[in-house]
UniProtKB/TrEMBL annotation:
InterPro entries: AP_endonuc_2, AP_endonuc_F2_Zn_BS, Xyl_isomerase-like_sf, Xyl_isomerase-like_TIM-brl. One of its GO terms (molecular function) is hydrolase activity. Keywords: DNA damage, DNA repair, Hydrolase, Metal-binding, Zinc. GO terms for biological process: DNA repair. Residues 1-33 are annotated as: Disordered. Belongs to the AP endonuclease 2 family. Residues 11-33 have a biased composition (Basic and acidic residues). Residues 1-10 have a biased composition (Basic residues). This is Xylose isomerase-like TIM barrel domain-containing protein. Residues 64-322 form the Xylose isomerase-like TIM barrel domain. It comes from Coilia grayii.
Amino acid sequence: MAPKKRSERKRKTETETERPDESGGGDASEHRIISKEKTEGKGEHKYIGAHVSIAGGLWKAVEASVEMKGRSFALFLGSQRSWKRPALDSAAAVKFQEACNSHGFQPNHILPHGSYLMNCGSPKQDVFEKSQAMLVDELSRCSALGLTQFNLHPGASRDSSTEECLDRIAQAINHAHQQVPAVTTVLENMSGQGSTVGGQFSELKGIIDQVRDQSRIGVCLDTCHAFAAGYDISLPGGVKSMLEEFDKVVGLQYLRAFHLNDSKGKLGCHLDRHEDIGRGQIGLNAFREIVNEPLLDNIPLILETPGRPGFEYAEQIELLYSLCED
Ligand SMILES: [Zn+2]
Ligand SMILES: [Zn+2]
């Protein structure tokens, strides 16, 4: 990138980080203007953002998204290390919702990501039960935060069959839906590493078919996972082909979000190793096709890339918007 462009970017970031104080009245209106400018520019129907940290409080995720000019975001709803997490702090929940409102983030552009500890497909009864309980807890947290969808890694079969695994996952989802109203569970496609299920679209369909409330189940397509699972989006027209395949097998009506990641691993390698946009085996063209694909309007398009120094989320979001042709 040319040095001139970089200094322009830096200047914008500095303006954005000037926050008067925590109450931030004037701050909010300033950001509304910024996001309005963006909606009038290129890619106005594209909601590109990133998975952001909640260190220091849930609302910090909102602030980080604003700083990087994200229009959507993902976050964890608690610690990734523990099965037993402290209850959601109601003051923090209020602060989070206020931040979302003042910066104009709608619930359908926010996609919380589930804890990596969960395996709702586990053949081990204790792991299954803990995972099922955690799924209930995750959906309850979404509800308490006014969020409407939740991103779940389906699970892994371990030493059981894929079919049994898909059955258990659907059972856990049905149970959680019974316990918590309204929130939609969004299954993520996987790379097919080890015994994880959801690498093939047919496996996602196998779960979806068993979910009782069809209005509360969806899919988030992760580009790195899809490529690693064998869907070649690096080819010209590759994104369109993948979406056609998805429509045929699952149905586009279930598509709720995308994760935008390049892949360190080669096509079909089954490795879940994310790379910065345009710097991996997928390449920039697929992402150009994604940000210009009308089927992906108005859904969260979320980065989960390493974000190396000099090419962090803000730069990758800017790059992606620069690829938008209208
Ligand atoms: Zn994920
Ligand atoms: Zn992902």
